[in-house]
């Protein structure tokens, strides 16, 4: 059986490519399994500083594979495995960038929302199409809702309306919408910026961004002060300050960016 997801590592960037264009990169059992495996490999590889989720074909991801879903009961639906993928992306200690050369629907939008950065061509479209086929955008809501205001979520989840990349950027679902000829350069721009950050500092910052804050401001400051002081005094912080004083790039910066 041909592989449906590919992993290539070069210059500190792990590119994971969805390659199932015959069904618009739908989340079939095989694709889900291979995506998880390649994410695990990229996370474990110390040479990898940034992960890029790419795709072949005209569609980034159409959501769950409905052909598989039609013949399964609730306990055996493919969506049962989907939370693990979204959580793996959301909690990944390395920055994850989604690269969209085409549309995303349903679960595909959930993947985009789980990524730290998302860049799309300006012709890409998006939709939470679940209600229109009689299902609920439940699992993806965990990653999507933190990106949207309540009013936007109600409108787009309940209507299933298709919206363009310009609006996706305006509401915070993606970071940037660019002409097709500029897509590669825009993704590289983000990847290069992310690679300038220290690995442990990036991981800690990602964890901080998604963690729940205590209700009391004093307790929040106490936690953040401990985190800040730990990294100021840590190996990366000391190296970063030394490199700044010596007007050079820190040791963790990939050679290609020095």
TrEMBL record:
Source organism (scientific name): Saccharopolyspora oryzae
NCBIfam families noted in UniProt: PRK07827.1 (NF005879)
InterPro entries, alphabetized: ClpP/crotonase-like_dom_sf, Enoyl-CoA_hydra/iso, Enoyl-CoA_hydra_C, Enoyl-CoA_Hydratase/Isomerase
Protein name: Enoyl-CoA hydratase family protein
Gene3D superfamilies: 2-enoyl-CoA Hydratase, Chain A, domain 1 (3.90.226.10), Lyase 2-enoyl-coa Hydratase, Chain A, domain 2 (1.10.12.10)
Family membership: Belongs to the enoyl-CoA hydratase/isomerase family.
């Amino acid at each position: 059986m041909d592989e449906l997801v590919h992993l290539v590592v070069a210059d500190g960037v792990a590119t994971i490519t969805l390659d199932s264009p015959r069904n618009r990169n739908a989340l079939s059992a095989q694709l889900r399994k291979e995506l998880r495996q390649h994410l695990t490999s990229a996370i474990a590889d110390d040479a990898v500083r940034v992960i890029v989720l790419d795709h072949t074909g005209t569609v980034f991801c159409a959501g769950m594979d409905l052909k598989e879903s039609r013949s399964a009961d609730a306990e055996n639906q493919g969506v049962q495995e989907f939370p693990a993928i979204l959580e793996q992306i959301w909690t990944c200690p390395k920055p994850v960038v989604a690269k969209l050369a085409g549309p995303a629907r349903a679960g595909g939008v959930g993947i985009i929302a789980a990524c730290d950065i998302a860049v799309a061509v300006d012709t890409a479209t998006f939709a939470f199409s679940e209600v229109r086929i009689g299902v609920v955008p439940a699992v993806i809501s965990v990653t999507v809702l933190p990106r949207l205001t309540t009013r936007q979520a109600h409108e787009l989840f309940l209507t299933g309306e298709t919206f363009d990349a310009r609006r996706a950027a305006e509401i915070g679902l993606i970071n940037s919408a660019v002409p097709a000829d500029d897509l590669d350069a825009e993704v590289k721009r983000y990847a290069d910026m992310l690679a300038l950050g220290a690995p442990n500092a990036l991981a800690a910052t990602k964890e901080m961004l998604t963690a729940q804050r205590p209700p009391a401001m004093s307790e929040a400051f106490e936690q953040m002060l401990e985190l800040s002081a730990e990294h100021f005094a840590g190996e990366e912080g000391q190296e970063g300050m030394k490199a700044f004083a010596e007007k050079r790039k820190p040791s963790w910066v990939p050679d290609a960016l020095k």
